[in-house]
Design brief:
CATH topology of one domain: Helix Hairpins
Number of helices: 3
Helix content: over 70%
Order of helices and strands: HHH
CATH class of one domain: Mainly Alpha
Radius of gyration: 31 Å
Number of strands: 0
Amino acid sequence: MGMERINKKLHIARRGVVYSLVLCTLILLIGGVGFWALDPGVNTLADGLWLAFTTAATVGYGDVVPSTHASRGFSVIVVLLGLAVLSLATASLAAIFVEKDVAQEEDLLAQDLLREINLLREDIRVLRDEVRHLRAPAPRH
């Protein structure tokens, strides 16, 4: 039962990573097309995509930069969306690692509990034998 819950959480976390990657791709594509359309200094779609990537990643190499008020305003949106997606992807990846650690710890805990249960069963068996021995009638001489 516990492993099913953990596997479900891992599946959800992995799905979050996939959604983050899809969202990141969409933001970069829309950003690239947006920069290409808004900024006359962005001559090709490839330059627009590069500008979208460097803007979203907050790297800003400076080889291609927004030169109009519209493209600068658009870059603010791309930065905010880039940071949001980066945060989402980071959180999803962290959740996967945390869930794996939790799964391992729960597995070890379950093994420890089984060992303790077996030891307690053995103690109970010994105690029952002692009680039987004490309740047995004393031999007559």
